[in-house]
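Entry 12.
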Amino acid sequence: MGTNGPAALTSALLVRKGAAIPAGYAALAAASRAGRTLRPNDAEAPAAAGSPRRRRNERLPDLRTRISLRLDPERYLKLKLSAAHLHQNLQEVLIAALDSYLEQMGPMVKNGACACLEGGCSNQNKTCEQKG
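Predicted 3D structure (tokens):
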């Protein structure tokens, strides 16, 4: 606090929910688009309205399916350590392991005669028996 006392709380400090950004970031983004270089200390605080931004709950569509996996503490620790040594996140390690497992299991399912696992099943309602 300076000698002038505390700062006044005014409506200029209010921002619409989901549109708040740290002071200086809007000016930094505008400067980078204009080809100038600014340091965070050089940037001015953004305007209250700011640029139109996506709301937090307006996310891009994710076509992946979410699953959950329960692991005992020992397996979880091994997985975390493996991911750290490979410089990957847990999802990348698990997807690679699942892909490898499914490649090995493909020939074993229905003695290798499952068109669905080979990518040949175009209609999800059909079963392997209906194709063969």
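Annotation: Residues 42-48 have pLDDT under 50 and may be disordered. Residues 114 and 129 are 9 Å apart (CA to CA).
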